[in-house]
Structure formats: C-alpha cells, structure tokens
Design brief:
Blueprint (H helix, E strand, L loop, with lengths): L1 H19 L10 H45 L1
C-alpha cells in the first residue's frame, strides 16, 4: 500500500510539472487574433473622426458666441 501511494504521488507530481510547462513551440498570437485586434483598432479610429469633428464644432460654437455677444452689446 505504501509503494502504491508513493507511485501515485510521484506520477501526480510529474504530471503536474509536465502540464505546467508551456513547451518549446510557443507560437504567440494567431492570425485570427491579429485580425480581431486590428479590427477593434479600426473601429476605435473610425469613431474618433466624428468625435473630433463634433469637438471642433463645439469649440467653434463656444468661441463664436463670445464674438456675437460683444457685437450685440457694442451695437446697442
């Protein structure tokens, strides 16, 4: 019984070490993963274009309203 327990324990320890090691042939990211990340980056970039145009329009509106108020006040 003692021999069986020692054998089983040594097999479990060896198997967990073998499963924990990553192996020699680590390929990195696959092709689909690269395409998915590139697609996500493109979505973010294309969403920035309308956002930046709205931001520029907001800045134009803020600075042009100050000029209009000065013209209206100066005209009275």
């Amino acid at each position: 019984m003692k021999t069986l327990s020692a054998t089983a324990l040594s097999l479990v320890i060896t198997a967990t070490q073998a499963l924990a090691s990553g192996g020699e042939n680590h390929e990195g990211m696959g092709l689909l993963t690269t395409f998915f990340i590139a697609f996500a980056v493109l979505i973010i970039l294309f969403q920035m274009v309308p956002g930046l145009s709205l931001f520029v329009g907001m800045l134009k509106g803020i600075f042009s309203s100050e000029r209009r108020e000065k013209e209206v006040v100066g005209g009275k």
